[in-house]
Amino acid sequence: MSQLSRDEVAHLADLARIDLDAAELDHLAPQLNVILEAVASISGVAGDDVPPTSHPIPLTNVFREDVVVPGLTAEQALSGAPEAEEQRFRVPRILGDEQ
Amino acid sequence: MNYWITKTAAELVDALAAGETTSVELTQAHLDRIQAVDGDATSGIHAFLHVDAEGALAQAAESDARRAAGETRHLLDGVPIAVKDVLATQGLPTTCGSKILEGWVPPYDATVVRKVKAAGLPILGKTNMDEFAMGSSTEHSAYGPTRNPWDQTRIPGGSGGGSAAAVAAFEAPLALGTDTGGSIRQPGAVTGTVGVKPTYGAVSRYGLVALANSLDQVGPVTRTVLDSALLHELIGGHDPLDSTSVNQPVGAFVEAARQGAAGDLAGLKVGVIKELAGDGWQPGVMSRFAETVELLTELGAEVTEIACPSFVHAMATYYLILPAECSSNLAKFDAMRYGLRVVPDGDPSAETVMRATRDAGFGDEVKRRIMIGTYALSSGYYDAYYGQAQKVRTLISRDFAAAFEQVDVLVSPTSPTTAFPLGDKLDDPLAMYLQDLATIPANLAGVPGISVPAGLADEDGLPVGFQVLAPALADDRLYRVGAAVEAALSSRWGGILLNQAPSLEGGSQ
Amino acid sequence: MTTVTKLVDFDEVIEKFDPALGLEIHVELNTNTKMFCGCPAVFGGEPNTQVCPTCLGLPGAMPVVNGKAVESAIRIGLALNCEIAEWCRFARKNYFYPDMPKNFQTSQYDEPIAFEGFLDVDVEGETFRIEIERAHMEEDTGKSLHVGGSDGRIHGADYSLVDYNRAGIPLIEIVTKPILNTGDKAPLVAKAYVSAIRDLIVALGVSDARMDQGSIRADVNLSLAPKGAGGLGTRSETKNVNSLRSVERAVRYEMARHAGILLDGGSVLQETRHFHENDGSTSSGREKSDAEDYRYFPEPDLVPVAPSREWVEELRLTLPENPAERRVRLQGDWGFTDLEMRDAVAAGAIELIEETVAQGTAPQSARKWWVADLLRRANDAGVELAAVGVTPTQVAAVQALVDARTINDKLARQVFDGLIAGEGTPAEIIEKRGLAMVSDDGPLLAAIDEALAAQPAIAEKIRGGNLAAAGAIIGAVMKATRGQADAGRVRELILEKLA
Ligand SMILES: [Mg+2]
Ligand SMILES: [Zn+2]
Fold first, then answer.
1. Cα angle for residues C240, C245, C251 (degrees, 5° grid)
2. Which of B114, B215, B379 would you mutate first to test chain C, the one with the most C CBs within 10 A?
């Protein structure tokens, strides 16, 4: 599997919302490639007949009763907020668009 | 050293029951020890990120009052404990060893913490760890490394170096750890202590700040196998708040440990994992391992060599699945609701604040894994990386299944080397990752594992760990075999291995 | 955006293009609790008071699936004639947004709980089969208040305030396959489909189904292809269209806009658009490049959902009568003409008429009040018919008074005025407003004598046997009694008198 270019690493940092400066890119990019080279060794190890494992101990249908349980007070909810206003989390202006 | 801090938790249980001491006395003794040896980021053991003397003493006083009134909540009621900083503790800071969570005080308790509090164990404080449990040396803590009580120029293992060092330095009789790829067992090995990774789902993960949800497990960190059994029985069991929690009664681990200590392993089938040996494995580690295997035979076990061919792919599998899951888990640290908020100059927006905060708040190893995971999940690469890794994970589980058709337990050295010097592997991620070669397969397959001291390596006089692995939900076998090994070796050594550790008196400040 | 948008006349669009529709409807379930935690899932409530570590995305918290929400999802799937997955998983949809506590939405990706269904909708007597691609479970996001800038819109705001009460409320997302061959009916088909989904949801009782409160939100995809060329053009996705009327208008507008671009030789941008209630236009939102990478993967904190076939069949038995079939039945029972029935459906009066009839009112009378008089009042007030302020019980009571000749239709309208004004029961209103009809002979005879004296010529005609002439006298009497005379009795008295 291919090596990551410096631009690709910058794109990954962008997807991950990490503001890497040039020095960090130079520092991390080669390390990422070393790691990717190592993990690439599993390509082709398991054939199409092998089912994927997403949970080591398989369970199914774990459901909750539709019954209200007490949660947090607004004070508790906002206790860690960097900024709060009108009992809401205050966040910087949101660029782009409603999702 | 204060008399009480050298005692095991099991001994403290008896002393409390016999009225020879009080929880306040025990708690104060351990707080004094922390005061004496823990030091800070620059010197001393630095096993703790936060010490709650006041809270612990208050809990201890309540425990004593209960006992005086003739009611105890649990065998361990009154025995102090340390908690890894990755577990949410209401009213106590929980940082996961990261700047991004500096000062965060959770408004809720992790299920295991709730159980510990309900049972009446005073919580001494929160222990140091690699940032978000990413590492094998505790050097990736944003608050400075923990130092190995055997040699303070060396690593205590990781990510749970704080919990292991705390019990190794007699700062706590018991500690809670978490194990995603070896973070309980490898620190246990390099500090000469005992660590258990229970079966996946056997202990609740609710309130454990997830590194890799399908690999993480909470477990005991202690100085003896029996103490681990006592703590495991307390924290184990089904939790409706954790969808992956196994709905089964907790095993009889204490009984298994007592039975094992009697030293009879007649009829037990033991498999030595062929793939976990060879180049890169320290000779002193291998000779202690060989002696311990020999010891099992003397105790009546039948030892054979077992091949687990897919284990050679465990590292690569692990370093794809873990980063993928953690890249998504750590997205929530965005400066909007809690934790660090860094506001860049100019006209900041939510997005630029997120970027600046995550750059300033995460360390290099966290950034590396987030980016590897982001890559492994991105469209076009998913099948080749994450998809393939989940298939290889199946092969590794099949190797275990096949092995446990032939043997009752599998054994290996816990870690390829003894404790290495601080700083040695900081900028060599792969070399660091190799530390977990022997511990990772158990996490991928969800099976339980224990590390018990096997002696000191000839070349450096540092502790070596012996790992025992059992089938899922057969955790009791770990305690039987672990206790047998511990009893036999302790009688040779005239006490537990830690008695040979250097004294730390005046070892700090 | 100051660029002028060229809009093409609808008929021209139809003669030159084939429209393709696609609808994504998010239904907010009315479960007691949220999708993955025990917090209340009710609308409104003080900010951040319906939250817990899980729906706030606090470090360490974990989700547990609400079994009732899964049940609702399966029932919706069955009602949409879908297959129900034997085994499916939740997946994480990763993207950063401040109103999403974990910065991923727990949703379903390639393993939806329900798939491959259909729903038939009627438009002007023609039936269109809408094919359903999938219905999957997911969680709602929090809500942001945008402070500063213009009218609370996101653009130009100084900062935002986030309330997470809504975060984690269960959503079912229903996605259609491309809807083709609707031609000039495209806007009506879109509206009829959303309306049909709403009826279905109401009948299933799984949601409040209040579009005005966002418990049903429609995203409208539209594209145009050159007439007869086949294939699909580039689509636009108009988000959160929150009324039936808006769905129709949004489709009309996008058809006109796309045609304008295409006829100028331009190409349509694949993007999300916002609908504006005031002028029925849409404006550009986020460009939706296919490069958008959500990095879906199975949610490792949840285990697979594997509904047993027994459970699915049990749930199938709980399905209500299909709304379309039900209408056919009711039209028969009530003896309505197709036109009468269509008007009643369009007015959203079916349930109201049914309840009124259930209390003994003749179907035609119930229809007359709801679809004529009360509908006009609702439209004037700009509210849904059900919210007009008169209940089926009251309509039945008023009609009973008309049947008993205590009041007539004219007076009944004044009773409804009183009911809407909250003046009390129909009886009390008649009392207070003095609306009872005069039917005792004394005052009526007096009025008749006056009228006859005033118009001797008419009186002669009647004596001469021209009974039709009595109408003029009746009119005069009604006038004299300000409409409160019992017209039937007046006629009788006149004829007795002049026989
Ligand atoms: Mg959706
Ligand atoms: Zn909640």
1. 65
2. B379
Write the DSSP assignment of C165-213 as a string of letters.
TTTT-EEEEEEEPPB-S-GGGHHHHHHHHHHHHHHHHHHHT-S---GGG
pLDDT of residue A96: 67
| Confidence check: pLDDT of C285 > 90 | no
Query: Cβ distance C61 to B111 under 8 Å?
Result: no
Instruction: Please report the domains of chain A, with CATH numbers, ordered by start residue.
Output: 6-45 (1.10.20)
List, for residues B42-68, the tens digit of each pLDDT value. Answer: 999 999 999 999 999 999 999 999 999
Cα Rg of chain A, angstroms: 22
- Cβ-nearest to C96 among B240, B354, B379: B354
Confidence of residue C150 (pLDDT cuts 50, 70, 90): low
- pLDDT for B196 equals 98
Would you call C59 and B101 a contact, using CB atoms and an 8 Å cutoff? Answer: yes
Amino acid found at B314: A
CB contact (8 A) between residue A15 and residue B378: yes
Is pLDDT above 60 for B19? yes
Residue B490 annotated among the catalytic residues of the structure: no
Structure tokens at B274: 């062929």
ω into residue B159 within 30 of 0, thus cis? Answer: yes
Distance CA B174, CA B7 (A): 11
Q: What dihedral do alpha carbons B103, B109, B115, B116 form, nearest 10°?
A: 10
Q: What is the ipTM of this complex?
A: 0.96
Give C302's contacts in chain A (Cβ within 8 Å): 62
The average pLDDT across B123-151 equals: 98
Chain B interface includes A58 (CB < 8 A)? no
For ligand 2, an ion, list residues with CB under 5 A: C 37, 39, 52, 54-55
CB B365 within 8 Å of CB B134: yes
Nearest 10 degrees: CA dihedral of C113, C118, C122, C127? Answer: 180
Question: Taking chain B, what is the end-to-end CA distance rounded to the nearest angstrom?
Answer: 17
B197 annotated active-site: no
C103 CB within 8 Å of a chain B CB: yes
Q: Average model confidence (pLDDT) for chain B?
A: 96
Write down the pLDDT at residue A97. 60
Q: What is the DSSP letter of C407?
A: S
**Residue B84 known to be catalytic:** yes
Does C49 contact A73 at a Cβ distance shorter than 8 Å?
Answer: yes
Enumerate the residues of chain A whose CB falls inside 8 A of the CB of residue C285: 97-98
In this complex, the residue of A35, A50, A92 whose CB is nearest that of residue B349 is A92
- Residue B390: closest C-alpha in chain A: A52
Starting at the earlier edge strand, list the strands of the sheet with A84-85: A84-85, A88-92, C159-163, C143-147
Average pLDDT of the residues of chain A: 92
pTM, 2 dp: 0.88
Nearest to B161 by CA among B143, B181, B177, B180: B177
Q: Average pLDDT, stretch C246-273?
A: 95
Ordered DSSP codes for C450-471? HHHHH-HHHHHHHHTT-GGGHH
> Which burial class, exposed, middle or buried, applies to B210 when counting CB atoms under 10 A from its CB (0-12, 13-18, 19+)?
buried
DSSP B23-81: HHHHHHHHHHHHHHH---SSSS---EEEE-HHHHHHHHHHHHHHHHTT--SSTTTT--E
Q: How far is the CA of B356 from the centre of ligand 2 (A)?
A: 29
Q: What angle do CA C32, B209, B356 make, to 5 degrees?
A: 105
Report chain C residues whose CB lies below 8 A from the CB of A74.
46-49, 51
pLDDT category of residue A2 using cuts at 50, 70 and 90: low
Q: Which residues contact C148 (CB under 8 A, 6 or more apart)?
A: C156, C157, C158, C159
Q: State pLDDT tens for residues C98-149.
A: 999 999 999 999 999 999 999 999 898 899 999 999 999 999 999 999 998 7
pLDDT at C349 over 50: yes
